[in-house]
Amino acid sequence: MFPSRAHLEQLLLPSIERVEQARSSYRKVFGQGMLIVLLAVVLTVLIIMTGYAQAALITAIVAVITIVITGVIMYRKFNAYRDLFKDNIVRNIIRHLIEQCILPDETPEYEYKWNYEKNLGISNYHINECNLFNSRIDEISGEDLISGKLGLTDFEFSELKLVRIDTNWHGKGQRTKTRVTIFDGVLFVADFHKDFRGATMLLSRGFLGSGGFFNRIGNKVGNVFRSKSEKVRNVNLENDAFNRLFDTNTTDEVEARYILSANFMERLVTFAAQHPQQIEISFVGSKMFLALSCGNNYFEPDIRRPVKEQIGVIRGELVFFLELIELFSLNTRIWSK
Questions:
Q1: Which of 114, 104, 178, 187 is nearest to 146 (CA)?
Q2: What CA–CA distance (Å, rounded) separates 213 from 204?
Q3: CA distance 297 to 280
Q4: DSSP sequence for 134-173
Q5: What is the rounded distance in angstroms from the CA atom of residue 34 to the CA atom of residue 149?
Q6: Does the pLDDT value for residue 39 go beyond 90?
Q7: Residue of 95, 163, 165, 211 with fewest CB within 10 Å of its CB?
Q8: At what angle do helices 307-322 and 13-50 cross, to 10 degrees?
């Protein structure tokens, strides 16, 4: 159980007041900036309407310079406010959610640790290790890296965007570049510190978008387990609803059936029904990887709303991911034979 929104609002009251003052200040800067831009545009239009070409050209140049400078100032002011919001609101919500979390069936071995890096994304090592992305990756960007330990489970997740850049050659040596989004969402990692013998992957059915996850199961599945010498098998499990949602591929069928218990499959079916985002899961090495394709920009400030009203939104976004550990009973250690 995590602290409620009301409890968080009380704990964060000094931070809320500080950030709210900064929000009000930025809104004034934003309003002034938009007024300057509007006046520059109107003045330019009026001068052009007079028919004096030289005066119109000079006015237009001055207007463009004014708009650019105003835009830069507003951008920098917003980034400063965004950093303040994340350092004082998001960071403290993470701290209180984890440090004051009460997990069921708690034992003396349970730990509650956390770390937050707003400008970092999940490591390239995890991106390669999870084997969920069957494509060349040319650009990697990520932010809001949250890591720690809840109970017995080490976890790590962040927003992540992966892009492939395709070059197309045309006649006379001309070329164009196309940016293809391979993945835009959140990659969640749970580490059990006990290696699986094989590798198991759950691939969502019925997703054929070229910019999506690895879904060419028939002729490409071997690449997913390129580090494994065992034969890859497609397994049909006992839960029909689960089978309709996922193709299960594994190098160790016995271990896959042990990992994918009846309880786990039921929980995943429920999770998928409640969350329409594309879901892919792999069990590789000692880790469970869950990739959620959503395209949302989480944990961001909204200058239109008072800071206090945003506490519930940020809490909900964080709890959504932190609850994965309990949702899938990761602390029960069903894999520790």
A1: 114
A2: 9
A3: 19
A4: -S---EEEEEEEEEEEEETEEEEEEEEEEEEEEEEE-GGG
A5: 45
A6: no
A7: 165
A8: 110
